[in-house]
Amino acid sequence: MRILIKNCELNHLVTNILIEDNIIKQIAPDIQPVADKVIDATRKAVVPGMFNGHTHAAMTLMRGYADDMPLMPWLQEKIWPLEKNLTEDDVYWGTKLACLEMIKTGTTSIIDMYHFFGGTARAVDEMGLRGMLTYVGFDFELHERASVYKKEVQEYHKSLINYSSRIGFAMAPHAIYSVSKSLLKWIRDYATDNGLRIHTHISETIGEVNDSIKKYGLRPVQYLQSIGFLGPDVSFAHGLYLDSDEIKILADNGCQVIHNPASNLKLASGNHFLFRELKQAGVPIALGTDGTSSGNNLDMYETMKLASLTGKVAYNDPTVWNANETFEAATASAEKLTGLKTGKIEVGYLADLCLIDLNLPELTPNFNLISNLVYSANGNCVDTVICDGKVLMENRRVPGEDEIMKKAAQVAYDLAKR
Amino acid sequence: MRILIKNCELNHLVTNILIEDNIIKQIAPDIQPVADKVIDATRKAVVPGMFNGHTHAAMTLMRGYADDMPLMPWLQEKIWPLEKNLTEDDVYWGTKLACLEMIKTGTTSIIDMYHFFGGTARAVDEMGLRGMLTYVGFDFELHERASVYKKEVQEYHKSLINYSSRIGFAMAPHAIYSVSKSLLKWIRDYATDNGLRIHTHISETIGEVNDSIKKYGLRPVQYLQSIGFLGPDVSFAHGLYLDSDEIKILADNGCQVIHNPASNLKLASGNHFLFRELKQAGVPIALGTDGTSSGNNLDMYETMKLASLTGKVAYNDPTVWNANETFEAATASAEKLTGLKTGKIEVGYLADLCLIDLNLPELTPNFNLISNLVYSANGNCVDTVICDGKVLMENRRVPGEDEIMKKAAQVAYDLAKR
After folding, report:
1. Does B416 map to a domain?
2. What is the mean pLDDT of chain B?
3. Are the CB atoms for A381 and A388 separated by under 8 Å?
4. How many Å lie between the alpha carbon of A383 and the closest alpha carbon of chain B?
């Protein structure tokens, strides 16, 4: 299958792009139309699909179910009671809705962490996105829970053969406060033995850091280093409360950090993301939305603006998180965090890309497209989405979208009544 | 002219709304279709049009022209050189583009502050929005400039008869550091004599406060009180650096404050807006986008999310700026700041309202519409806009939008070359 994108704007110049199977094959102003499908992209710009580095997709089911609450009552009275009754079918429909929203806002790759891997994987695969998906692990120091988790995670890992090559599997201990040292070590070993990546939460709140110091005499990153957990295959969500020693450890071990501004602000976890220090140390930085129960939507364009603006004010410096580096954190970072050649519009890269409708007031005038995308647009500027060489959205329509919204809403209302 | 909106959702209940001329005449589930126009609003929610309490509309021309710069080089090297060459025609086209963007994101009322009142007023009037428009005053202590300004402002005031009743005129000294005491007093008197409101910038940066203390021995609000400037007809943009005495003075005088989160964050002015203290004191709070040269867009839905989320993190309290009070700051506050019966969906109010398309993934599920609008949606959820009883947008199309974008972009590029 070959797709020719004609007359698209790339870095403010008009060109053509030829996609062959799932790869960007050629970028040139003079490609002859020898394709199975030709897309006229006049007055449209081509950009990489967004990479959502941290989400819990199925939590779309809880969007707007509980807001404006402190973290613990929110979890204990609202979110956890709902999650206790979740089924794999719920997760499937919540993830379908999430994928729909992500496609409509120009995301093509995600790292997801949740329960019921089967529901997530089936939904992401069907919707056509690329996902490094996980089965989140908790044992709360209970030996029995750890045993069950180990068995389940191996089954999920084996089930990967049922899905397309867009679906990847990674290990995901929830956090150091919810996973025992022995399970963390088992996860590390399982990842090494099977060539899998690891994704986990770290230092989302200051309380978590203080608890770690109290329990282990070490800050969270130091603790993970002490048990041999770190490596270039480990990515961390949040990382708000890191000290300079921890940043050095992350850099020395090649770890990556994913900033989730909407969630961190809304739960009042803090506006402390150490962009400048992490960048200086050479730690790759990506962006994520977190789940919609805290961040409320999955729009990576909005996430870029939030990250940049709140970063500038945190450092009292408007030059921090400039438009280009913010855009890269939301796109090119995918390669470092997933190991896949995605997140760039270059020959040889995976054909994960979007066409932006330039005929929008918020993109007018167009002095600097990246500035407009980071600071002015939201995900609704995306007109066409191609992932793995397949068209997922054209003219802002995704096949079957009304049915997905209707069914997912019903699943959410039923869940709230259980 | 009568418009019947059928089967719309209002506060999660299905009803009908009858508009007669420019007023909401009736809200009931059983209105007979005796209207000149019937809008089928099935699966659409009705909400008040947004009120953008502080903007410089024509600055759309400078969107993305200069970002990621410190305030003074940004102004001195980029913005002011461009503004020196502005013409009334530029302001007209920049404001047309701004109005288009505001209509497309559900705003119906604005307070604008800029140069060339004639260009602004003509554009806002033609586009159908409601505007409390001003001619910004500077004299930098120069007697000659003050004289010219006084003459011009009186001419602009007289020119109001050329426009529809949607166009209002208010006084707008730029700020205490750019306007002399004598001109401030003249503006205050002119406003009193002519029953006009006053809109100005205050305490946007800590430097401005320190300068005021140095020059007058008083903080900015105290200084304005000392010259008899304050009253319930005065609204202030920014107000980031207020102390408790100033907040009490604002409350005692019935003044209002407009928070502009995007601009304050992007210029790194500070994340200090004193929502809790101002609310406690009873000072009305509104929201604004500021100009697109700093905030980059005019989307009041995005502004709500920014205000709420950054407020929560500033107070380290996720219950601050809850969804309902954030929504009110963006809608119902219009009445207090402009004196007009707008910003609410109630019988007797001006017919300034929007229909929200509920068939959107970011509004699914719909546990709480206000939460979804504040935390998940952006302005693209708006399907239909009615202002002063006239339909400005239906099915997301505004008549003439392509021509406005094309012409305004050309004006912006020409301006940048001058």
Report:
1. no
2. 97
3. no
4. 13
Q: Which residue of B has its CA nearest to A380?
A: B380
- The count of structural domains within chain B is 2
Q: The complex's ipTM?
A: 0.97
Select from B67, B101, B377 the Cβ nearest to the Cβ of A375.
B67
- Pairing between strand A2-10 and A256-259? unpaired
Dump strand ranges (E) for B106-265.
107-114, 130-137, 167-173, 198-202, 234-238, 256-259
Residues A250 and A136 grouped into a single domain: yes
Task: Give the Cα separation of B112 and B126 in Å (integer).
Answer: 15
Nearest to A97 among B314, B361, B409 (CB): B361
User: Minimal Cα–Cα distance from A98 to chain B, Å?
Assistant: 8
pLDDT tens for B142-192 read 999 999 999 999 999 999 999 999 999 999 999 999 999 999 999 999 999
Across the interface, of B65, B74, B100, the residue whose CB is closest to A367 is: B65
Inter-chain residue contact B378 with A299, CB threshold 8 Å: yes
d(CA B120, CA B113): 9
| Distance of residue B174 Cα from the nearest chain A Cα, in angstroms | 23
Distant-in-sequence, close-in-space partners of B347: CB < 8 Å, separation ≥ 6: B24, B25, B26, B27
What is the DSSP track for B271-340? Answer: S---HHHHHHHT--EEE----TTTS----HHHHHHHHHHHHHHHTT-TTSS-HHHHHHHHTTHHHHHH-S
**Residue B68: both structure tokens together:** 């990621």
Which member of A63, A302, A316 has the closest CB to residue B365? A63
Confidence check: pLDDT of B33 > 80? no
- Which residues have C-beta within 8 Å of that of residue B185, sequence separation ≥ 6? B227, B228, B229
Min distance B306 CA to chain A CA atoms (Å): 8
Q: Given B306, B338, B370, which residue is the final one in a domain?
A: B338
Whether residue A73 is predicted with pLDDT greater than 80 in this model: the reply is yes
Query: Which of B297, B314, B364 faces A405 most closely, judged by CB atoms?
Result: B364
Instruction: Provide, as residue numbers in chain B, all residues whose Cβ is less than 8 Å from the Cβ of A372.
Output: 63-64, 296
**Whether pLDDT at B266 is above 90:** yes
Is B191 among the domain residues?
A: yes
- A71: chain B residues, CB-CB within 8 Å: 318
CATH number at residue B246: 3.20.20.140
Whose tokens are 């059983």? That residue is B30
Could you tell me if B32 and B67 lie in one domain? Answer: no
What does pLDDT average to over chain A?
Answer: 97
Check whether residue B83 and residue B22 sit in a common domain.
Answer: no
How many angstroms separate the CA atoms of A361 and A358, rounded? 8
Establish if B187 belongs to a structural domain: yes
Interchain proximity B375–A266, CB inside 8 Å: yes
Decide: pTM greater than 0.95.
Answer: yes
Please tell me what DSSP assigns to residue B159. Answer: G
Is A63 close to B100, i.e. CB distance below 8 A?
no
What are the start-end ranges of the E strands in A161-279?
167-173, 198-202, 234-238, 256-259
Distance CA A254, CA A210 (A): 25
Is position A283 within any domain? yes
Q: Which residues of A touch B292 (CB under 8 A)?
A: 376
B93 CA to chain A: closest CA distance, Å?
12
Gap between the Cα atoms of A157 and A134, Å rounded: 9
Same domain? A133 vs A233 = yes
Both structure tokens of A336: 């470092």
Quick check: A60 and B100 CB within 8 A?
no
